[in-house]
Amino acid sequence: xxxxxxxGAHRTATQHLASVLLENKAALDAENTLYIHDNIQALKLMxxxxxxxxxxxxxxxxxxxxxxxxxQNRNVxxxxxxxxxxxxxxxxxxxxxxxxxxxxxxAKQLQTLFTGHSLRLFTAIRNPATFIPSCYAETILNATFxxxxxFLGDIDLGKLTWSSYLHRIQGRGQPISLTTWRYEDYPFIxxxxxxxxxxxxxxxxxxxxxxxxNNGLNLKGAMLLNSYAEKFPDQTRAQLENTQKAxxxxxxxxxxxQTPEWSPEIIKFLTENYExxxxxxxxxxxxxxxxxxxxx
Length: 296
Known about the structure:
By secondary structure, this protein is of the alpha/beta class. 48% of the residues lie in helices and 11% in strands. Strands 2-3-1-4-5-6 form a six-stranded parallel β-sheet, sandwiched between helices. Helix 3 (39-54) runs antiparallel to helix 4 (59-71) and helix 5 (103-113) packs parallel to helix 8 (162-170). The mean pLDDT is 91.
């Protein structure tokens, strides 16, 4: 079976791609492809199966049971799953020197879990200058409150590269098939991404998807919301939701309001590193990079 998993990163238009697949279910069905919409349940089933294998269970039996559960006993040729939480949490998408520090071990677990089948992983990357603030803002919207400095922890911004993350996913010995693209290019290449991910013969006729590519708070709004929540800690759920809505309207994520904690110098430094890193990624072995088409 062909198993394709979009493992993130967080805040890289995963919901938009998911909506594209849901809107085009008939096209997927026509090519015997199943998109598993309930990714939380799928992740739990996969976690349980991994634990069972690690406890010296019969891997083949456990795998057969898992695939039957994921497909609900349907006879399909291809499974699609989108879940950025496989590699880590949005509240901590980096360690001191790496994006998603557990990536290598988790990718290896997936490889073990689907031994004998074609496993392909897909991951978008994003400029750390916007990725890190966006993850922080999402964490605040999830009501996990902390100041931005605490969120950053002991991070070394100069050492964070997506190429290192991709190397660790690939692993050694038998590298996993890996496809990547930049979040910044996604609005222009989403049909190409959909075609690569689904394996469908043609996605260029997919209707325009009007769902927003990204919603949320910008960094300034997230920091102010955190301060507001500290000042008024006893809000009811309804009050908190209304507060969040008001902040999202006032400080939308597409407005990159500067803050002293995230200066233009930091943004320039991270952006230049990101561009250099992407140049390297497009030349890495065993990695397919989806880029904007250039017409001459």
